[in-house]
Request: fold
Amino acid sequence: MATLLHLKSSIFGENGQSSGLSNTFVEDWRAQHPDGNVVVRDLAAAPLPHLDAVAVGGFMTAMDDRSAEQAVAVARSDELIAEISGAEVIVIALPMYNFGIPSTLKAWIDHIARAGVTFRYTENGPEGLLTGKKAYVFAARGGLYAGTSNDTQTPYIENVLGFVGINDVTIIAAEGLNMGDEAKAASLSTAHGQITALSGTLSAVA
Ligand SMILES: Cc1cc2nc3c(=O)[nH]c(=O)nc-3n(C[C@H](O)[C@H](O)[C@H](O)COP(=O)(O)O)c2cc1C
Reply:
C-alpha cells in the first residue's frame, strides 16, 4: 500500500491556489490508488516552531543525555522524519510569499534535514538517505519567474529535496495569478492541464 505525504503551506488554507492544484493531483492519485494512504500536514494551519539551539543541541546529544527540552525537540523532528520516511510520494504545495517559500515550509525543512538521519557526510560529500521517493511540487505565484534567476523557489526546493535523497522531482507552476483575471484563469487552466497529463503517467506504486 503506497503512502502519499501532502504538505500544504498556503495562508489561505483550502482557498489557496497551491492547495487547489495539489488537491487536484492528490485526488487523481487517490483514484488510481484506492488502497493508498494519504497523510496531510498543513504547515500553515499548524506551524512548527523555528529550529533552535535546543533542537540542534538535542540532535547532537546521545538519547540518554538529552535534557527534557531537547528530548521534546528531537521527538518532534523524529515524528516529521518518520512521516516523510513512510511515504513513497511527497506532494508539496508551494505558494510564493515575498520572493521565497513560506517560512512554515522552511521550518519543516529545518526539522527534517538532519545529519546522520536523512543525510550523511561521506568522503564524496553529502549523501541523501530518503531514497526511492518521488516528489511533486505545485507552485503558485502572483508574478512571472519560471526560467529566470528570480525563481528562488524551484532551484531551492530541488536542491534541498536532492540533499536528502529525493531526486525524482516534478514541478508544475501556476504563475501570473495576480496579473488580472484573464491571466489567472489561463495560468490555472494550463496548470490543471499539466496535472491531468501528469496523473496519466502515474504508476501503480507512485
Ligand atoms: C503575503 C504575500 C506575499 C506575496 N509575495 C509574492 C511575491 O513575492 N511574488 C509573487 O509573484 N507573488 C507573491 N504573492 C502572491 C502569491 O504568490 C499568490 O497569491 C499565490 O496564489 C500564493 O499561493 P496560495 O494561493 O497557495 O497561497 C504574495 C502573496 C501574499 C499574500
Notes: Residues 3-199 form a domain with the Rossmann fold fold (CATH 3.40.50.360). Residues 128 and 165 are 4 Å apart (CA to CA). DSSP finds six helices and seven strands in the chain. Residues 10-12, 16-19, 95-99, 140-143, 177-178 surround flavin mononucleotide (CB under 6 Å).
